[in-house]
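Here is the promised in-class demo. Please do not try to memorize the tokens; focus on the logic of going from shape to residues.
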């Protein structure tokens, strides 16, 4: 099992949700407003008057075989509007119940 954390501009919400639905990633936690700044490119997402946009985040636990198709689909969403920003990070899950 792997944990995938997805941070994305709120404008990507529908596309990210569609990816999760398409790959049958049913269980996840959604964070509506997430502030942040990308490590490489893009503008900050602080929800302020100067940097008005905001991010959202999703964390999901998936089978190992789902990780590659999920990352590939999320990369396509990101590349459709690169300045908005979307990143996904994967961690091993040691145990769960």
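The designed amino acids, position by position:
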């Amino acid at each position: 099992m792997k944990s995938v954390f997805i941070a994305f501009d709120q404008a990507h919400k529908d596309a990210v949700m569609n990816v999760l639905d398409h790959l049958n990633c049913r269980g996840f936690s959604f964070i509506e407003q997430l502030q942040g700044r990308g490590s490489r490119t893009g503008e900050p997402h602080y929800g302020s008057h100067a940097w008005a946009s905001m991010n959202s985040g999703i964390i999901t636990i998936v089978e190992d075989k789902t990780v590659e198709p999920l990352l590939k689909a999320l990369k396509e969403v990101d590349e459709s509007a690169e300045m908005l920003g979307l990143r996904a990070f994967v961690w091993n899950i040691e145990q769960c119940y």
